[in-house]
Each structure stands twice: as C-alpha cells, then as structure tokens.
Amino acid sequence: MIGLLWDMVRGRRGQFVLTLILAALATAAAVASPAYLGTVEEQIVAGHLAAASTVERTVELGATVPRLDVGFEQSATPRLAGPGLTQVFSAEITMIPAGPEKVPPADSRRVGYRQDLCDHVVVVAGRCLMGAMEVVVNERAATGHGVRLGDALDLNAGAYIGGEKIYRPSGDPARLTVVGIVRARDSTEPYWCGTVADAAGDDKGGVPFYVSRATLNAIDHPDEEQHIAAYFGPDGITVASLPALRAWLAAAGVQQDGSPALGTRLPDLLAEIEADVAQARATAPVAALPLAALSWALVVFAAAAAARARRQELGVVALRGVTGARRGWFAAAETALAVLVGAPIGYLTVAVLSGRYADPLMLAAAAVTAAGALVVAVAAQLRSAGRPVADLLRETDRRSGHWRSLTLEILVVVLAVVSVAQVQARGGTLSGVALLAPPLVMLAVGLLAARLVGPLAARIAGLALHRGRLVTALSATRLARQPTGRRLLALLVVAFGLLGFAATATDVSAATVDRGADLAAGAPTVLTVRDTTRSALLAATRAVDPDGKFAMAAVPVPAMSEGAPPALAVDSARLPAVAIWHPDYAALPLHDLAARLQAVPESETIRLRGTTLHVELTLGDPTTVATTLYAVLAPDSGGPAVALGFGALVAGRHTYEAHDPSCAAGCRLVALKVGITTAVGPDCRLTVHRLDADGTPVDLARHWEAAPAAKAVATADGLALTLPSTGRSNAGTVRPLDLTVPMPVLSTGPLPPDGAFGLFDGFAATAAVAAPLRAVPGVGQRGALVDLERADLLSTDSGAVDEGQVWLAAGAPATVESDLAAHGLTVVSRHTVSDERAARGRRGAPLALRFFLVAGALAALLGAAGTVVVAAASTDAYGTLRTQGVPRRVTARADAATALGIVAAGVVAGLLAALVAWATVGLFLPSLSIDAPLPSLDPLWMVLAAGAALAVIAVAAQLAIRLRASRRKARPGVS
C-alpha cells in the first residue's frame, strides 16, 4: 500500500503539491488570526503604558508621621509588594531660611530623601551625596534660588500658619552644604513616580533639595511626609497578568486599622487596557471566521475537483472489481497525505513570521483547521469514490443533486437574513449567529450569483453561436454545463467580498482614527507652556506671529461644577488659520464663527500707572466684622495679577493708601474686592469717591458688574456699592465691565438658564450662545469656545496659567519654539496630530481592524489558489472538437475566456456582496461606523487590482497546464 501511495503521488505530483499548498494556506489563514491577535494585545498594552501618565502607572501610599517613626514604612512596604512592582521610598519636609520669625511661602524650600537617588541623576557640577549634612540641588532649582556649588544653607524646619499665610520656625537650625548640582538622567523613567518626585525640580510639589536618609533624620523637625511609590518594570503589565493585578489591587486596597488608602489611577489604566483587548477579541473573529470557512471550503473544492478529474480512473478501477473500501483508500490517501504534510508547513510559516511558536490559541486553531480540512477532504473523496460506476464514467453531473443544492442555498439565505436581523437587533453586538453575519451575507450573494450564471451562460452561448463567435460560445457552454466553474465563482465571490468588506472596514477605521485625532489635537501641533500668565501668553504668541498666520494662544477653562462642559479660551481671530476644522463641526464656516466671538465692541479699560494708589471712600453701616478693601491689578508686563490691600476700613469718609511697584510701568484694574462677612447680617454699604495712582485719578463713571443681589452704581458722588452678606465667595467683588455683555460663546449645548458661563477665576459671567457647535477642536464632542482676551479681562484672578497652549498651523516655522522662549515662554511639551493618530492607532479596534485587511489579502490568495486548482483538475473539454478540426488556439482562447469570465463575474458579484454586507452589518458595528462621509473609493480599487492579478494567474495557470499536457506523452494509468 505504501508503494502504491508513493506511485500515486509521483504520478500526480502537480495535484499533490497543489493540495499540499492549499492545506498549508488553509492552516496559515486559520493560525493568522490568533497570531495577529496575540501581537495586537501586546501592542495594546505597550501603547497604553507609553501614553499613560506617571500617576496611572504607579501605586502610592503616603502619610504624615513623626520624625524617626518607621511604623508607616514597615506597614506600607508589604502592602505594595505587588507582582512586577519596584518600590521607591521618599520622605520630605518644608524648610525655611534660619533667622526670620516669619517667612513667606515663596521663600520656603522642599527638602527630602529619595531612595537610590544617585543612580538616577546626572551630576552637572560637584558630586552626589556621600556624607552627613550634605545636599544636592536640582539644576533648575539652583538657578531659580540662586544656589551655587559649595554654598552653606542655614535652614529651619518650617510650620505653615494658615491664618497668616506664612511659615514659622519649628525646630533647631541646620547647616547643609551644597555638594552637587544634578538633573534627572531621564525624566520619563518610572523611577520619578509619585507625588513627591519632580524630575524638573519644580517647587510646586517637587523636591528640588535632596539629602540622605541620615541627614534628614538628623534635621530637627516635628514630622515629615513619607511616601512609598511602586512602579512597573518593562514587562510588569501584560495581558496575562491583568487578572492577577486586579486581584492584588483589590486586596491591597482594603483599609484596615485606619491605614492610608492607595493613591493610584492604575485601575483606570487596567480598565482601559481590558476594554481595548476585549474589543480586539470581539472584532478579530468577524474576519477570522469567514477566512477559516473559506479555507475549508477551498479544501473541499480542491478535493472535489480532484475527484472529478479522476472519475473515469475510479470508474475503471471499480469495473475491475476493486472493493469499495479499497477504492475509498485509493481515493482518499493521496489527499490525506497532502493535508497532513501541508498543515505543519502553514503553521510554521505563520509562527516564523510572527515570532510566536507555542501560543495555545495558535496550536488549537491549527489542530482544528487541519482536522477539519482532513475530514472534509477525505469525505469529498470518499463520496466521489462511492458513486455508481455509471456516474463515475459520465462527464456531466446527474440532475438529481441540483435539488439538494437548491435547498442548501435557501438555507444559507435564510441564515444570512436571521444573522443580519440579530446584528441590528443587538445594536451591532456580534455574538452567536450574528458573528457569522458578514460571511453568510457574502456566501448568499455568491450562491445566488452561481445560480444565475448557469442560465445566463447558456443564453450567452446561444447568442454567440448564432453570431459565429466560437470562443465565446465554447467558454459559455462549458460554464453552463459543468458545475465546477460555478462553484469556483461562489468561492471567488466570498473571497472578493471579504476583501472588499475588509478594505472598507479598514478605510472607515482609518477615517475614525484621523477624525478623532483631529478633534482631540485641535491643531497640527500643540505646544504646552508652563508658569506664565494669560496676558503674557497672548503677548508672546502675537509677537512671534504678528500677522496671525500660524500661531494661536489657547488656555483650558476650568469647569465650575462636575457636570459643566469642558471649555477652551482661544485667540479667536487666529482660530481659522490654525485649527483643524471639519465642516460638520458647525453649520457656519469657521471664519463666521470666529467673528461672532469678536462681534461685541470693546470699551476702554481702566488703566493705572504709578507705585502708590489712593482711594477715598465712605463706609456706612459697618458690619460687626472688620471690612477690608483690595484692588486687583494686572501689570502690563504680563506678570500675574496682584491684590493690593488698603487695610481695614472704618466707618465714615476716609482716604486709604497702598504701595506696590507692580503698576510702575502701567497696569489694568481688574476688580475691587471688599471683605465682608459671609454670615447673614446687614448689607455693607460704601461709596468710592476717588481712586488715583500717583495722583492721577481714574474715571469711575462706567458700568460695573457685581455678584448676584449686590449693586454697583456709578453716581455723581462716585461708585456706590451695596453688598449683602451671603455665603458666596465673590459676594464683595465688583469689576469694571471692559466689554459689553453678554459674552459670546460657541457651545455644543445650551448654557444654564441664567446664562452664566464659568470663567478662569471660578466666577460666572453673563454669556449667550453666539452659534451652536457639533464638536469643539481640542475639546471633543461636548464643550465650548470663548475668546481668550475677553475671558481674561472678565476674570478677577491672578491670570496665572500652569499649562497654557500654543497652537501651530502646518506651515509654522521651525524656530517657533526658540522664538517663544525668547519672549519668556517655557515650552515643556510638543504634541502633533500625527502623534495623536499614532496613539489612537494603537488602540484595540484600529489594531484589530487591520487584521481585516490581512484576512482580505489571504482571501484573495485563497481565491487565486482556487483558480489554479480548477485549472489543474479540469479535464480536456475540447479534445473531441480538436479531432474534428477546431484549431488548438481556439480551444486555448476558450480556456482563457472561461477563466477570465469566472474572475470578472467574481469581482462584480464580490463587490456587490461587500456592499450588501457593509450596508446590512458594517454600518451597525460600533467599532467600524462613524459619523463621517461614506468610505472612499480605495476599497473598490483594491478589489479591482486583486481581480486583475487573479485574472492573470488564472489565465497563466490554464495556459501552462494545457501546454504541459500537450507536450506530455501518454502514460498508462495506475492500476
């Protein structure tokens, strides 16, 4: 038997190799999905970790403990001993210069210890810590505080006095020697995690002065802030470790005996990763299942085609009295051997390409595919071998099988309708029968096309014969009489349909990513600046780009309440030149929208110049609590606004004086703030008769805005104020309205009923929606836009901006960052729309949808293999005609025309199948659909290109096989 099998393989080497390649392709197609999915999951984790903030990647415990107390450290260390975590212990105190009894917060210093500090810094000057009472200073902090190498710092631990807003000494002084100036080796490494670490050395929460643990213990201080921050290594978070991390977080987060709670946003990060992984796992089978089904169908098709080509041979064997069992082995052994050899080849090919060799899902997919291919191939061969001898010797199929075929086609159509209904009923959720909706729709279209091609081909054959077109008549007649071509057509429809559906899905996914990135970024490039003011940001940006062609200042507006929409204040006149704007963001053009933000005319502001301010006022009906008066002034230099105090007010008419150099070069009066009681009591009534700077009076006869229920009226005697005692924090604030109200706002939704819009200072201004928006660049689907200069003029705070933005157009000069730095802005980060697209492209759905294109390409490759199999297994249908005088070139052209006709019909019907599948399934899938224009024409050209390549392959295969057959000498069959 082994020798006979070997002779069979040698006798039909071409057929054996084709079946082997087909089995390898089927296995590779099935294994590709879990291999790609495993890679996608790794990329999802890596992408989230790369984009996550420090807080999201770390877990932290902190507490304020007495000096030399190690209880917190001993209890917190085991709580943070999680899987894959590396711990960093730190402790810090606030110190002030020794000597003065009162020190303002600006002169305080954060001094602290951080575990293994010297391993993570670069020494700019001097050395790192070695001995006692030594300190190293961050490079930026050393510059800001005027600290030099070798300086001796006499410091005291400081205690903050909240009522006086000062620090007082709280221990014996200590002398620290500066032995080094350092900077972070890599400010992005996870070592700099936790709330007390700041690689930039910023005073806002950071620790710019570092000492050893022994030095910190030696400094006299009542208590210290201790923290243990734990971060993950490069492989600390994987898809496989997510359940263990969840369980550890749940256990570590349980508070017992008043122990501090975990400080982390890690659960949010894990939830985002799990959601993306789940979305990828739900999306990939949409393409993987039809690809696997197509692979099996092609194996069946190849086995059936091979069996059909050996009909007469099997019939002769049956006539010689060979038993049914031996005929079955004779028919199936060759195909079974090809499948068993080809399946490992397909698996190893994908394993080598993906670098994943022992993935359980890949092994399972390979085993199921190989077993299924083996079963269906052997079954097809046994079914053919078991037919009666008369059927085996016939060249055409019996008509009795057509009814069974029709029943199967009706069943497929019904299942397709049911699956589509399930998809729409479940809102795009794919599970159960709905998971098979796309391939069932494509298969239904393919079977209908195959059903129609027979009568249509017969009609074409008749017309061609009447018109003398022999080649067309021969090819159409062959397609009408033999079912092999029609089955190949159904297979090609599914292949091209899957390619078209995959191309459409990836096209829409790319559009989703691009549009989402455009909306999130807001502009081609966004620079983040820190430690500036709104006026300085506006001035610097306008100085760098005086014509308003490529740069725009922008500042996020903090929400007044949790439910308030996010808002962005922009230099609106520059918005059309800089922002990425899609027409569907609003009904009006962007230029019109920007003009509406500037539509209200401005009036003159109250300007002051001088170092001494005088105010003459009359206080009547004084409250039981001492009343104070402040003038909030915004310097023209762009520095932060200052609150200049005139001291306590007394009843009657008096003149008050205040000194400050902030207005020496000029400033703007932002607001007057009267300190009144917040308890229920009598109204505070006062009249401001005169306000001057170095003797130059200001005009008080203008419109002033006060808090609700308060009154500010300009009279002949001055500005009369009636301020009720309420619980509002801005009850005593009045401001000159430099702009007429209401303030125009562009918003995606209505404002509160009273028309209030929250400003930078946390107070509300009267506003009105100038035009509705559907989306706000840089904010999202819900938000609002206001003019930055207008909002700044209406705000009464200091104008300080922790993180402002400068939006840049695509054509911005390369020197813009250095130009901004020359005008006093510190750029701390640069984010482009390309960065945003890359980050969004690493999420679950976009990554998984890329497999659609891989599946589509594999489907087209399987279709090409199917055409080659048909060409190899087909018999010489025109041999009798050639003996009757028909030239060989005519029959060769007929073979080519048949192949071209099948491929052309497959392309047209495949595009129709893809369109039907997309219209009935794709548009309802949340991971695929977006509020955007219809897909581009790229999928159409992709399918047409694949069809052209497939046509070339089909014709080449037909001609090559016919040429080889014509040159091959006749050989006796296997007996």
UniProtKB/TrEMBL annotation:
Keywords: Membrane, Transmembrane, Transmembrane helix. It comes from the Bacteria. Signal peptide: none annotated. The chain crosses the membrane at residues 287-307, 328-349, 361-382, 403-423, 488-505, 851-875, 896-920, 940-961. This is FtsX-like permease family protein. It comes from Dactylosporangium darangshiense. The lineage of its organism: Bacteria, Bacillati, Actinomycetota, Actinomycetes, Micromonosporales.
